[in-house]
Structure to design on (107 residues):
């Protein structure tokens, strides 16, 4: 784990910080972050995400493809409908932290 105080393996530390930095960059995109927040709550189709975001389905599809290629989401096909869901525990932890911080700010 990255945050151990006795972290001595510099190469592993560098690899882990790069991996986490890439994850944060992926989540930091406003559209992808909104998609991930929605997928935390329930499975959603491209049409549902597109409508909620006010974005074209092609743009949403591109974001979903990126999130899926990085292992943050997966999908299930129900006949002609594809439902996406969040599968990354790390991304969920980051999003929960962001949600918690936003709730504290609002209070």
């Amino acid at each position: 784990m990255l945050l151990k105080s006795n972290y001595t393996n510099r190469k592993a530390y560098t690899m882990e910080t790069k991996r986490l930095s890439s994850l944060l960059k992926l989540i930091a995109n406003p559209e992808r972050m909104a998609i991930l927040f929605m997928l935390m709550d329930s499975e959603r189709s491209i049409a549902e995400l597109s409508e909620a975001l006010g974005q074209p389905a092609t743009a949403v599809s591109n974001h979903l493809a990126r999130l899926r290629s990085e292992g943050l989401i997966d999908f299930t096909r129900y006949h002609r409908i594809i439902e996406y869901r969040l599968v990354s525990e790390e991304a969920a932890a980051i999003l929960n932290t962001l949600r918690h911080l936003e709730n504290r700010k609002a209070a």
Observations:
- The chain has a mean pLDDT of 91.
- The longest strand covers residues 73-78.
- The two ends are 32 Å apart (CA to CA).
- The chain has one domain: 30-106.
